[in-house]
Design brief:
The protein is α/β, with parallel strands linked by helices. It folds into two domains: 2-246, Aldolase class I (TIM Barrel, Alpha-Beta Barrel); 255-320, Non-ribosomal Peptide Synthetase Peptidyl Carrier Protein, Chain A, CATH 1.10.1200. The protein is 43% helix and 14% strand. The strands form two sheets. Strands 3, 4, 5, 6, 7, 8, 9, 10 and 11 form a nine-stranded parallel sheet that branches. It has a two-stranded antiparallel ribbon with strand order 1-2. Helix 11 (255-273) runs antiparallel to helix 12. The longest helix is centred in the last third of the chain and has 19 residues, at 255-273. The radius of gyration is 19 Å and the shape is globular.
Amino acid sequence: MLKIGNILIPNFPLLLAPMEDITDPPFRALCKRFGADIMITEFISSEGLIRDVSKSIQKLDFDETERPVGIQIFGHNMDAMCRATEVAEEANPDFIDINWGCPVKKVASKGAGSGILNDIPKMIQITEAIVKSTKLPVTVKTRLGWDEHSKPIVEIAERLQDIGIQAISIHGRTKAQLYHGEADWTLIGKVKNNPRMKIPVFGNGDIDSPQKAKEMLKYGTDGLMIGRACIGNPWIFRDVKYFFETGNLPSLPNIAEKVNICKEHIIKSIEWKGEKTGLAEMRKHYSGYFKNIPDFKPYRIRLVTSTALEDIFETLEEVSNL
């Protein structure tokens, strides 16, 4: 068994990547059911947590069935990040994850997320302060570096390990790439194969099928983190595991099964966020749930424009008969 600190985790786990307004408790519950081994919350603003902002506080919620689960925080101010860690610790997660990877402008431009990759000494300083401020294991999610000319991830990983983090997840792109181009897994492999590295190293980026997941095994990581490919497709974790075990691709859920899972997701989303927000945020999942269904476009338009649950369920019933 692998460990994150003293937490036992399955050998070669599949991790659900944290994604804003995607990986909330309703969706995490589905991903867990379909085989995700380790959960991490949506990233939470350190400033929002210490100011008791309701949206940030709500993101601390998780169900006991999700364990092992980490709470992910982001920010650029050391004091705020340490105080936010204390708030997060009160929610009793298994570990604290620091987001040093988000490339979105409104985050990175302030020196948070992957914005910190332009100031590695500050990244190390803040991370070390967080490690010292909590009894929980601390993990990090980050990227290869700032841009094509600066990819110091091997050094970064060593330094983060040396100041006490217990695992690292690496997205195989730079801050400048955002989500464009292909993820470079060779550098992720170099981190894992660095003889100085003793903590688990998880790889992330472009895993959109069981075949692609198997292709990434050659880099030797301790596990895989799956992000965008699971949106509207929570069974990808089950499919990857099945392919690893048998070498065969599993049968995909039929349309009726997809509709039932989607309905369950909608109901859980409404229970957690209320009907207006719950339905609005489900719009990001419909294309994934019903990918490759012929003539789906008019139904998708109805799903993303409807504001009443009754209308959405009526549309889904029509979809189930396609």
